[in-house]
Structure formats: C-alpha cells, structure tokens
Write a structure and sequence with these properties.
Length: 159
C-alpha cells in the first residue's frame, strides 16, 4: 500500500514539475545587453531577449525594468512576437542603463518575474557587452554570464 502511494505521489510531482514546465527555466530570457556602448549612451544601449521555447511567444504587455539609479520600466507594445529560437532587441531612445551595478528584470504581462540579470557593470565605453555564455542556459547564477569584447577586423593586413 505504501509503495502504491509513493508511486502516485511521484507521478503527481512529475506531472507538476515537468509536464506543466514549473521546474524548467524561463522560455523567454534576457540573453545579452550593452550597458555602456562606445560614445554617448543615449539611444545606443540595448537589451536582447531570446525565445528558448519551441513555440512563438507574444510579449505584448511584458516589461523590461532597470533597478539602479533612474529606474525605467519599458512596456513592450502590443503585437511584439518572438518566433521560436529567435531574438528581439530593444534600444531605448535615451540613456536608461547605468554603467555600474545595473540589473534588468523581465516580467510577463501579469507582472510575474520571468528573468533577471545579475548586477552587471561596464565602465569601458566601447563595444563590449554582457551575454549568456550558453544561449538559452539559465541556472540563475552569475556564472551564466560573461563580458564579451567583439574582435576588431583590420583591413589591409595585421592590426
């Protein structure tokens, strides 16, 4: 009898955590961002979202929120859809991300937190940006993230 109850309980937990997706990581996540692009930040800072789901996701009414300094809440407009396995990039028309100790939070249309970055900093004022080390991998750890400096391509030989 006890073993039968254990089997039923295990099956119920399996259904809740795996079939409903409760135990899985977010399907849409913050994949990369540039806190401090080269030159003036205004109109050039960006946040990239990635849809790790196998279906298209409607982001209408979702929000991107900053947490440091002048806090910004950007509401994603109606009709923004990220296809499965694709990206969507948002660039604010003014400076909205702080260069030191900034965190960005993604919330769904009901206000539920879907994803967040760790506290990130970038004082380089160049093309370096933060990104997930492995696209679609979210273990809720700072180790998911790395600072990437794009390689420069020099024309006419070595640089």
């Amino acid at each position: 009898m006890f073993s039968k109850l254990n089997s039923i309980a295990f099956t119920a937990l399996f259904f809740v955590f795996f079939w409903t997706g409760y135990g899985r990581t977010a399907q849409v996540m913050i994949n990369a961002l540039d806190l401090n692009p080269g030159g003036k930040d205004s109109g050039k800072e960006w946040v990239e979202l990635y849809n790790a789901a196998e279906i298209d996701m409607d982001l209408s009414g979702w929000t991107l929120e900053t947490t440091h300094g002048y806090k910004v809440i950007y509401k994603i407009p109606e009709g923004v859809i990220i296809c499965a396995g694709e990206y969507w990039v948002y660039t604010h028309d003014r400076q909205w991300l702080d260069n030191i100790d900034e965190m960005v939070i993604l919330r769904d249309a009901q206000g539920k937190e879907v994803d967040r970055t760790p506290l990130l900093s970038d004082e380089r004022n160049d093309d370096g940006y933060w990104r997930r080390k492995i696209r679609g991998m979210d273990t809720n750890s700072e180790s998911d993230w790395e600072f990437k400096i794009p390689e420069k391509i020099f024309e006419g030989g070595e640089g």
